[in-house]
């Protein structure tokens, strides 16, 4: 038996709550931007993923028109900082609806560092920064998807194992439903099976 849900009948907010409880866990893009006036903004976005491999493009969604989106439209650059476990409360605090002229870096007390390839600063204590140039935006109903071409990636040396970022060292947070957040649980490993190796498949 299943329980059925009709988005049309339920309406926006109840269905949004259902959707965000079943599309889980979601990685969190901690997005730093600069306004034209020079205020540094920082806000978490969990509607986030990789959009393209070549060129490397990431995407996040602004539900409504928020400061991060406005800044990116103005200055065409942003940084996706990984949201690490040890900054849990600070990350949540940067989701507060501060007025446009207030920098979350200052209000929450988050140290910044200069980026390499773009003007918005990086979060100094985050182990990963993906520096992006705006590629394009797509507006869908009440939301705008922002695509950013990654022009530089910086990973903390301490998070690297044998030349590769290691999830056990990155310790990323994830967003779940309601007010729930997740940490990385057990890490499983398995190789992809090529069709040629599938049991019963004979090589032609
Ligand atoms: C963990 C977390 C994830 C969030 N994900 C999103 C998201 O994907 N899209 C969005 O529009 N808002 C999201 N929010 C809410 C924004 O962070 C919040 O509205 C914030 O004030 C926006 O800041 P800004 O106006 O400075 O851009 C999230 C909040 C939290 C705490």
UniProtKB/TrEMBL annotation:
Superkingdom per UniProt: Bacteria
Boundaries of every Flavin reductase like domain copy: 21-175
One protein family per Pfam: Flavin_Reduct
Keyword terms, alphabetized: Flavoprotein, FMN
Classification via Gene3D superfamilies: Electron Transport, Fmn-binding Protein, Chain A (2.30.110.10)
Any one Gene Ontology molecular-function term assigned to this protein's record: oxidoreductase activity, acting on the CH-NH group of donors, NAD or NADP as acceptor
Cofactor entry: FMN
Family of the protein in this entry: Belongs to the flavoredoxin family.
Protein name, entry field: NADH-FMN oxidoreductase RutF, flavin reductase (DIM6/NTAB) family
Organism per entry: Actinacidiphila glaucinigra
């Amino acid at each position: 038996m299943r329980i059925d849900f009709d988005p049309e009948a339920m309406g926006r907010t109840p269905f949004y709550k259902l959707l965000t409880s079943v599309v889980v866990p979601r990685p969190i893009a901690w997005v730093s931007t600069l306004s034209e006036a020079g205020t540094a903004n920082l806000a978490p976005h969990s509607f986030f993923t990789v959009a393209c491999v070549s060129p490397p493009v990431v995407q996040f969604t602004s539900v409504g028109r928020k400061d991060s989106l406005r800044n990116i439209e103005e200055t065409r650059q942003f940084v996706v900082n990984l949201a690490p476990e040890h900054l849990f409360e600070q990350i949540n605090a940067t989701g507060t609806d501060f007025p446009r002229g207030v920098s979350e870096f200052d209000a929450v007390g988050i140290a910044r560092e200069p980026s390499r390839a773009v003007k918005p600063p990086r979060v100094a204590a985050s182990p990963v920064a993906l520096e992006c140039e705006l590629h394009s935006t797509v507006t869908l109903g009440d939301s705008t998807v922002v695509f950013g071409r990654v022009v530089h990636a910086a990973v903390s040396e301490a998070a690297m194992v044998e030349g590769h970022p290691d999830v056990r060292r990155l310790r990323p947070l994830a967003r779940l439903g309601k007010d729930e957040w997740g940490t990385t649980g057990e890490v499983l490993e398995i190789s992809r099976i090529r069709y040629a190796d599938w049991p019963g498949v004979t090589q032609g």
